Amino acid sequence: MKEEDFFRKLKKLRQLKPEKEWVFSLKEEILGREKRGFEIFPFFRPIYAFVFFLLLLTGIFQTAQKALPGETLYPLKKLTEKIEFALLPKEEKPKANLELLNKRLAELQKIAKMNEVKKLPPALNEFQANVSEVSKSLTKLRKVDKTVLEKTLEVEKTKKEVEKVLGTKLEEKESENPTKIVVKSMIEDLEKRTLSPEEKEIFEKAKEDFAKENYTEALIKILSLSK
Amino acid sequence: MQKRKKFSKIYDRFIEKIYRFIFLKVNSREVAQDLTSETFLRTWQFFQENEVENFSAFLYQTARNLVIDHYRQKNKNHTTSLENYSSLPDPKQNLEEKIFKDLEMERVQKAISQLKPDYQDLIVWRYLEGFSLKEISQFLAKSEGATRVLLHRALKSLREKIKEI
What we know:
By secondary structure, chain A is mostly helical. Chain A has helices at 3-12, 20-38, 45-64, 74-86, 93-114, 120-140, 146-166, 178-191, 197-211, 215-225. Chain B is mainly alpha-helical. Chain B starts with a helix and ends with a helix.
């Protein structure tokens, strides 16, 4: 036999093939055996996938709530806040805005404590943006109630703590100072009311503080009157 | 699920090749089927727990080991003569039989079966299945240079056998 004939004939051996039926049944035997072992209720597969997706999404959203300005998940945190805010009734929005401002201050405080310099500018921007929002909603508010006063005082206290950590005053436009807006509104309201001599005295002192731009002191005095 | 899909594709791609590779060594459809199914089952079991970089190398290596074990167990000489094979009782005339009924094909098979097992593998991989030198070197876990030398020797040995038949 010639060498060329040999290789030509050798290639003919490619016709050697196993029976199709056997090939099919073996594949089922090998891969099917595992299927029975590992997959419980395969028809629930789409539900498993959905539950897994939900858990993943919940995990991401929960992690996002701890995010700080300048971090990847921070926009997601803001989005959650916006959705929650949009769902609130109109009268609850000024309080919610004050709570958000408190959150921004808490973020600033955290960043300052951790000395994360890079995150400070975006955090300050977020704070300024929230101050504007709070001022707008407080200006529109017809009646300042006790909860608003308490929330404003809370913001003022946190602000002082942040300023202490940062070692500098947080800049905000005079017209946008939430405490000033709230105190001014309360003074206008109390002017119309009948007060006892003791209350009148406290109110006068509050007005003096307001004139001297000691808005926090004025707020504390007014809050004592509303008790 | 990804692994199952991947292995399903690997199975479809290699089942005929592995079966042919084993059949040419054992000369029996039943044994070839048994050893082929064992080859794929073991590979699948391994793949479920580990990663396999080169499936063709893994499958051929497993098949080779199983054929060796088979001959050890049976205490047979792996170069079963064609005469013996032809006399195997098989009531159904299958494809394997039809091919080997051709006298020329008998001679081809005879020449291969007279080679050393390593040379048989090299000739089958290179000239029957058309694998590249690089692929064959991976099956043998040898360098390309060493594989080239082995293939050269296998061809030389084959030429001698062809002259004899």
